[in-house]
Specification:
By secondary structure, the protein is α/β, with parallel strands linked by helices. Helix content is about 35%, strand content about 30%. It has a 19-stranded parallel beta sheet that branches. It has a two-stranded parallel ribbon with strand order 9-13. A two-stranded antiparallel sheet has the order 22-23. The chain is rod-shaped, with a radius of gyration of 31 Å.
Amino acid sequence: MKEVRVITEKNYYTMEDIYELFNTGFNKIVENTIFRGCNFLGVDLAQIIWINCTFENVRFDKCRIIGTYFNESRFIFTDFIKCYFEQGTKSFDLMSYSVSSCTSSFKKCIMNYVNFIKCNNKDIRIVECTSEGIDFEGCNLTSCQILNNKFDALKIFNCELYSTEFTYNSIINAEFVECVLNNKTTFNFIDNEENLTSNIHILYQIYRFLKVQGYTSEAVEYYLKYRSYQRKASKGMNKVWLYSLHKLFGDGEELRKILSGALLTIFVFGLLYNITGIQVNVNSEAIKNGPKLIQCFYLSVLTFTTLGSGDISPATPISMILCMIEVLIGVIYIAVLTAVFYKKISS
């Protein structure tokens, strides 16, 4: 087993200070090292591989972290402040360390209470890491990949998330505030009970961000996912109510479902009128002698649309009650349809 180095309260200002850390000659590799209370201040940390390292109460301030790879390392109360992350150029062999590219990466790391503050994190990868708390504040996370991680708490505040990929991360508590996205930003969730509340919160925030930024169709997609997770999390009568709204009104977004629900309502009430009874209030023999089922559907359409011409009306107290119920349903459907049509036209 290789010996573990422990470095305490040391400041690194230049690459000359970093050279003494390397385990080999040409390749910049730092292995089995514990940093406690150290500061990396304005250092160019390009194309360095950190393997099995621990950063405890460490501060990276205004560092260039380009083509850098962290493998099976631990970050505890570590701050990255105004650092610059970017994809590097492949100048030495990283393949033996399971690195597919020189993008700055954190893989299988423990990142407890790590803060990225006003960093340019473009193109970084955070893969299969665990964290009790990780914050991004004022960062550029464009084209980042955050994949298969387990975060107890994640906060992303005032960050750019253009073309960022969040895939199958387990997040217990999440907070997204004042972020900007585009239609290439993707979120795929782990669908289990533990992450349900967090997924609901994230989906709603994404929906709001996309809607404000004018990505209407993408916003609708995430809104429908948000409503789906809401239904999964609900219980008792609330669950029945939410599923009823989904089936009848398509969560106020799916025009096809709304139209289908309206036609089904008219059809069902027409059949009920046929059973409970209607009466014809005109002298026309052609109308009086017409097919009763057609008359019932005619009454149902007039009632649903609140037109009510008066030539056909309910004949029994039960059919009168049915008319009142259908009028109320029809008013709701017309309001929802108007809102959906307006949104479709305005978008």
